[in-house]
Amino acid sequence: MICSICPRNCGADRSREFGFCGAGDEIKVARAAPHFWEEPPISGSRGSGAVFFSGCNLRCVYCQNEVISHGAFGREVGVDGLLRIFENLVNSGVHNINLVTPSHFAVQIARALEKFDSPVPVVYNTSSYEKAETLRCLDGLVDIYLPDLKYYDSSPALKYSGAPDYFENASKAVLEMYRQTGDLVTDSEGIAVKGIIIRHMVLPGNISQAVKVFGWVRENLSPETYISVMRQYTPYGEAKNLSPIDREISVREYSIVREKISELGFTNVFYQKKSSVGEKFIPDFNLEGVDL
Ligand code: SF4
Fold it and tell me: Does ligand 1 come within 6 angstroms of the Cβ of 23?
């Protein structure tokens, strides 16, 4: 297909070449296994069934999953293979199916989900660099959106992700996600069954982005919106030599962001502990769960 499903609009003919995202037509996966490091309503006690897709349409310079996002490591599985992956994850007892970096396969994933009567919620875990019109193909198929709203201003979006139009697209995408699912709903055990959690990973030297992003959320979504303020940033790849993101965020930076969030009046907020920082949290991309 000639592809324009994401804001890159790179126009690749994915039947014979890879797009900017590194993807061809076939769904490609690098790992499918229970994952325990998402927010508590997503990971619960039995883990989230994370399916890590190969390739990425954003390709941030600091990406910790570089081997799959930039290198597109993985195995082509097609729609039928993806359905077997879903079934195996459900049989392992996970709380949900968690589609990680799915944007460049949104259309193929919708085809798979139409054939899959999932007994657990389906989570769409994205960088938010999406077209709202593409997300409409997932309406009724995705139960929970987990968008990372990464930048408000064009300048850091250009510098770190080569996407100066990031917020223009991501903000419309988040509104479409919210239209589809509404606020987060949990079951009696606190596990998410429907809704949206808006994340933002605070970058060192860029706390104004966190304040602006959550300010926008407060103005445009319900006050009950669940947000997740991530402090897990660890310099990785090119970012190790790129100031100011060549370091972890400081205690003071995270504390300022927390104060601002409190001033904005959010009540449903997930914060991360400092112990969540480090390369030990990067999954091993070894085709686990993909070797069908
Ligand atoms: S999904 Fe990939 S191939 Fe399609 S427009 Fe975006 S970057 Fe290009």
Answer: yes
What is the position in ligand 1's atom list of the atom closest to the CA of 18? 3
* Pocket flag, ligand 1, residue 72 (CB < 6 Å): no
* Predicted confidence (pLDDT) per residue in 67-124, tens digit: 888 888 899 999 999 999 999 999 999 999 999 999 999 999 999 999 999 999 999 9
Identify whether the C-beta of residue 187 lies closer than 8 Å to the C-beta of residue 145: no
Number of the ligand 1 atom closest to the C-alpha atom of 4: 5
Q: Is there a contact between 142 and 181 (Cβ–Cβ < 8 Å)?
A: yes
Which tokens belong to 127? 């960088």
In this structure, the strands spanning 226-230 and 269-271 are: parallel
Phi-psi region of 198 (alpha: psi -120 to 50; beta: other; left: phi over 0): beta
**Is the CB–ligand 1 distance for residue 21 below 6 Å?**
yes
**Quick one: which of 184, 203, 209 has its CA closest to 270?**
184
H-helix segments, the chain: 40-43, 66-69, 78-91, 106-114, 132-135, 154-161, 166-181, 207-220, 251-264
Measured in Å, residue 149 CA sits from the centre of ligand 1 at 19
Residue ranges and CATH numbers for the domains of the chain are: 28-281 (3.20.20.70)
What is d(CA 108, CA 113) in angstroms, rounded to the nearest whole number?
A: 9
CA distance 219 to 209: 15
What residue ranges of the chain have pLDDT lower than 50? none
